[in-house]
From TrEMBL:
BP terms from Gene Ontology: lysine biosynthetic process via diaminopimelate
Organism: Chitinophaga cymbidii
Residues engaged in binding substrate: N13, N65, G75, N76, N171, E188, R189, G199, T200
Protein name as it appears in the record: Diaminopimelate epimerase
Catalytic reaction annotation: (2S,6S)-2,6-diaminopimelate = meso-2,6-diaminopimelate
Domain of life: Bacteria
Subcellular location: Cytoplasm
């Protein structure tokens, strides 16, 4: 099979993207997708996305983790796929698409940033020194004093594969409060390693970092791959709405590969 692909990145979270509106790539197997995402023997990416058709929406997002299995919602992936949709001629000011966790809206700014509306969150588990919530994907959030000193791979893996999470898996975020916002590092399930950025993880971290009082918030977020912002309204003790993940989404290159 010959595949024409595009490589996009959003704050270092990188993706192989294909235009599957004609269905020509629907037969890709788990092994083939994993091969395409392999950083030594393939193109190299944190995941693969397909742009597909969906009635009543501008497009459908289909996302696969780097291990080749279909994944849960990917925030940076949704922003990159929105930029790709614009590149492919879907040029409305506000785009509506459907993903595995439901409908989303997205808008493109003139500076190259893409703002993605996330699902509302109405349940947050607050434990001893951690939070656990679902922002389209499940996230364990732990606040630390020095995020640069954390062994994200070892500590994240130990949580992701502990007795509670081993079967379904969870993403693990280590968060440090800084002068202007937060710094987040994430261990991602499916990639099974630290990534440069994780959109749903950044969103989870920002929600749990907000002041306890209801109100509108804008949380600046630093990741290894760059700067993001999360805008939202806190409506209750553990309830959040109108959540927007905002940041850059960039075409890196396009090419052809035969598998």
């Amino acid at each position: 099979m010959n595949i024409h692909f595009y490589k996009y990145q959003g704050t270092g979270n990188d993706f192989v993207i294909v235009d599957n509106r004609g269905g020509e790539y629907s037969s890709l197997t788990t092994e083939q997708i994993a091969h395409l995402c392999d950083r030594r023997f393939g193109i190299g990416a944190d995941g693969l996305m397909m742009l597909e058709m969906q009635p009543e929406y501008d497009f459908k997002m289909k996302y696969y983790n780097a291990d080749g299995r279909e994944g849960s919602m990917c925030g940076n992936g949704g922003r990159c796929l929105t930029a790709f949709a614009r590149h492919m001629g879907i040029s409305k000011p506000m785009l509506r698409f459907i993903a595995v966790d439901g409908p989303h809206e997205a808008r493109l700014r003139e500076n190259g940033w893409v703002d993605l509306k996330m699902q509302d969150v109405h349940q947050v588990e607050a434990g001893n020194l951690y939070f656990y919530l679902n922002t389209g994907s499940p996230h364990f959030v732990k606040f630390v004093t020095d995020v640069q000193e954390v062994d994200v791979y070892e500590e994240g893996r130990s949580i992701r594969y502990n007795d509670r999470f081993a079967a379904e898996g969870t993403n693990v975020n280590f968060v440090q409060e800084v002068d202007n916002g937060i710094f987040v590092r994430t261990y991602e399930r499916g990639v099974e390693d630290e990534t440069f950025s994780c959109g749903t993880g950044v969103t989870a971290a920002a929600l749990t970092a907000a002041p306890a009082e209801p109100g509108d918030y804008n949380i600046p977020v630093e990741t290894l791959g760059g700067h993001l912002e999360v805008h939202f309204t806190r409506t209750g003790e553990r309830s959040y709405s109108d959540i927007w993940l905002c940041g850059p989404a960039t075409l890196v290159f396009e090419g052809n590969i035969k598998i």
